[in-house]
Amino acid sequence: MQEVMETTFDLVYLISVITIGILMVRASSGKSRQFTIFGWMAIILGGGDSFHLIPRVIALCTTGLDHYTAVLGVGKVVTSVTMTIFYVLLYYVWRERYQIRQHRSLTGIVYLLAAARIVLCLLPQNQWTAENPPEGWGIWRNIPFALLGVVVIILFFRSARGRQDLAFRHLWLTIVLSFGFYIPVVLFASRIPLMGMLMIPKTCAYMWTVLIGYKAMRKEIK
Q1: Contact 33, 94 (CB under 8 A)
Q2: What mean pLDDT is predicted for residues 89-102?
Q3: What's the pTM value of the predicted model, to 2 decimals?
Q4: Potential cystine with 128: which of 44, 65, 68, 73 (Cβ 3.0-4.6 Å)?
């Protein structure tokens, strides 16, 4: 049952988010920089997640997850890096949508947090391909990632609310939900495997983020 349900969910998610991203890039190219960035953001989200989810689907439908530990570990590294890039691009969506032309120090903070996250993810101490990676490193590498998320949440919350941007009024909430479901997995999944199920609503939150951008594009680009 898990094989059918999870496989269906993962494939629908990957196909949907990548397709929406391609549609956004094609429709907004030369017309709206913010939605072109948003489209690439969706493509990178789906493309990065596919490195982990496709091997997971194959494992579930064949010999089981235990036989794909190394491949799944590599997929997690790729996903971790692309998710970081996702938030950097989302930051630039904020700058384009609200015509921000200053705050260079803020851009520096975003890049610093993203770089710290990527470097921490690439360190060998993470032991991504091991059967039981060290839990402590899972926490350390997610600290700059969570801080990056907080920055983006505050920016979209204040800007959408301050400028009465109805199309993006809930975008900050989708990020809050994604981290709300993700953090318990980081902290407790190694001891409570069922916590891993929270990755499903986390993925739904990202889908909501992408759909917010797509719906806004269809409304604003004629």
Answers
A1: no
A2: 95
A3: 0.94
A4: 73
